[in-house]
Amino acid sequence: MSAAVCKDVTQRFDDLTALDSVSLEVRTGEILGIIGPNGAGKTTLLSRIEGLAKPTAGSIKVLDLNPIADAHALSLRTGVQPQQAALPPRLKVGEAPESLSEIEGVTEVERGHSATASASASRETASRSTTGARTSTARPSRTTAGSEAPKGRFKPVRLAL
After folding, report:
1. Domain ranges across the chain
2. DSSP per-residue letters across 73-133
3. Where is the composition biased (Basic residues) (predicted)?
4. What global pTM score does this model have?
5. Is the distance from CB of 38 to CB of 155 less than 8 angstroms?
6. DSSP code of 39?
7. For residue range 81-136, what is the model confidence (pLDDT) as tens digits?
8. What is the rounded CA–CA span in Å between residue 38 and residue 100?
9. pLDDT (tens digit per residue) in 24-45
């Protein structure tokens, strides 16, 4: 199965062609790295794959769904990590899950369940760390993430579905 397929994706901004008939396929389980100089169209392509905007021409499918028409269904199956993730300046870390769940329409009951599970996981991690056992609770995630590069260098962008 293909995780993402782009066929002849083109994006024009007035006289500027940011993407010119880009075609690619990312199969499930593959990791694709997109590199290029600033202004090459990396972020433009990823924003189209994420469904943030429709390309001028071409087609995009992610998990056999249209990122624009099937945005909600796709959001339940994928996640995006921006290049620079940060909380709004006045939002405290403890307030973030509630604030974000409200945006996503999660009910108070669901939030309560998640908070209980999260607190339980935190206690379990803390307990493991005192015994010297492995403390990492990281799980594989489906993300789109970039990283900052030194000036004059290529900025890599990673996509994993």
Report:
1. 1-81+141-161, 86-138
2. HHHTT-----SS----TT--GGGHHHHHHHHHT--HHHHHHHHHHHHHHHHHHHHHHHHT-
3. 152-161
4. 0.55
5. yes
6. T
7. 776 767 777 777 777 777 777 766 766 666 565 554 555 444 444 444 444 443 33
8. 31
9. 999 998 988 889 999 999 999 9
* Both structure tokens of 120: 């339980």
User: Minimal CA–CA distance to 149: which of 36, 19, 32?
Assistant: 36
Q: What is the pLDDT of residue 113?
A: 56
Using CA atoms, how far apart are residues 66 and 21, in angstroms rounded to an integer?
A: 18
127-160 pLDDT tens trace = 444 444 433 333 333 333 444 434 444 444 455 5
Rounded CA-CA distance 103/160 in Å is 24
> Which are the contacts of 7, defined by CB distance < 8 A and separation ≥ 6?
23, 58, 59, 60
Quick one: pLDDT at residue 104?
Answer: 67
Rounded to an integer, what distance in angstroms lies between the CA atom of residue 131 and that of residue 133? Answer: 5
Burial of 132 (0-12, 13-18, 19+ CB in 10 A): exposed
- Phi first, then psi, for residue 13 (nearest 5°) are -125, 100
